[in-house]
Design a protein that fits this description.
Number of helices: 13
Helix content: 40-55%
Number of strands: 12
CATH superfamily of the largest domain: Type I PLP-dependent aspartate aminotransferase-like (Major domain)
Oligomer: single chain
Number of domains: 2
Shape: globular
Structural class: alpha/beta
Low-confidence stretches: none
Length: about 375
């Protein structure tokens, strides 16, 4: 049986929609909150742009803006000259992990379950990764026990696909331990502003970030790397060889988004997803799903005790009425019983239909 990937489910759902079928898109990690300022308003302000070559590491103004974002919303002092503007989060992760493996000479330890591109990047660009459990009760011990031959460790909290967040004290202890052992800590901070409860500390020598989730603008394709350790010039060189920089218009839009953002704005963003999360958790419990309590992002990582392989469940739901898209956890290097529900773009009707389909499918096919 073919193991479904995120792209497989995405393509199937798009095809079903084009056929006129109703689809519940619980597969794609897409945000639904409003940006702090409407894009149309910014575009009206932008004059004649894109006519000159720009620094491939990002404009000075864009880097200053990201530095302000770090101080204001991450609680981090990000030196402007160590900030590199990237084409989204995937590129920031690739460059960070590739550079870590070259500079510190070793494997990169990544979370599993985790973002699929952690593994795809390693396969395509020729460096090695090994894995740790991001849900471990003792994160420091879990990571520390696997550091032989490791140059860098990637963390991602709030975590995709689980929504898990460990205590800040564990994150700080982990960073202390890795510094003691001369191992880089690379923080995939994609969901840094979407948490439920205490603010998640953005620890790490390196921050690989995207504004796709922060401002709900995945089509803008803009992020950054903060490289707080040796040889920052290598980051600039790799960035240049990959794309020669981010478009001027994207950088200008980002600067206006950061300028318009506020603590109150991000509180409303968190409130938006917290309401969806509460409804998702209620329905999941009614459906007898087993899952770690989501503490951030907009994902539920779950399994049903009667379903030994979530891939089969996902295939059944793609042929349901309405069509339901979920992603088997194997796509994230997770256990085959588990699957990810993304509730980023779901409404109340979607949630009701999603769990009605799950309850019926688990009963019909596995009960």
């Amino acid at each position: 049986m073919h193991m479904l990937t995120i792209r497989d489910v995405f393509d199937a759902c798009k095809r079903k929609e084009s056929e006129g079928k109703r689809v519940v898109n619980a597969h794609i990690g897409e945000p639904s909150h409003e940006p702090p300022i409407q894009l149309s308003e910014i575009l009206k302000e932008i004059g004649d742009v894109g006519r000159k070559y720009l620094p491939f590491v990002g404009t000075e103004a864009a880097k200053e803006s990201v530095s302000y974002f770090g101080d204001k919303f991450l609680g981090r002092d990000l030196e402007k000259d160590r900030i590199f503007i990237t084409n989204g989060g995937a590129q920031s992760l690739l460059i960070s992990t590739l550079a870590a493996s070259k500079i510190r000479k070793g494997r990169v330890l990544v979370p599993a379950p985790g973002f699929p591109q952690y593994f795809e990047h390693a396969n395509e660009f020729g460096y090695q990764v090994s894995t740790y459990d991001p849900l471990a009760d003792d994160l420091v011990n879990e990571v520390s026990s696997k550091l032989e031959g490791v140059s860098g460790v990637v963390i991602n909290y709030p975590n995709n696909p689980t929504g898990h967040v460990p205590p800040n004290s564990e994150l700080e202890d982990l960073w202390d331990e890795l510094r003691r052992r001369n191992v880089l800590l690379i923080n995939d901070a994609a969901y840094s502003q979407i948490y439920f409860g205490e603010r998640v500390e953005v620890v790490g020598d390196v921050i690989a970030d995207t504004f796709s989730k922060t401002f709900a603008l995945p089509g803008l394709r803009i992020g950054y790397i903060y490289w707080g350790v040796e040889r920052p010039e290598l980051i600039g060189r790799i960035l240049y060889l990959m794309t020669a920089g981010v478009s001027e218009i994207s950088q200008l839009i980002l600067m206006r988004m950061i300028e318009a953002a506020s603590d109150d704005y991000f509180r409303k963003v968190r409130g938006h997803y917290a309401k969806l999360k509460d409804e998702i958790v209620r329905e999941a419990k009614k459906s007898e799903l087993i899952f770690p309590e989501p503490r951030g992002a907009f994902y539920l990582y779950s399994m049903h005790p009667d379903v030994p392989d979530s891939n089969e469940l996902a295939i059944k739901l793609l042929n349901w009425d309405p069509v339901v898209g979920i992603v088997p956890a194997a796509a994230f290097r997770g256990e085959k019983e588990y699957f990810r529900i993304s509730y980023g773009v779901l409404n109340e009707r979607d949630i009701r239909e999603l769990f009605a389909a799950i309850r019926e499918a688990t009963s019909q096919f596995y009960g």
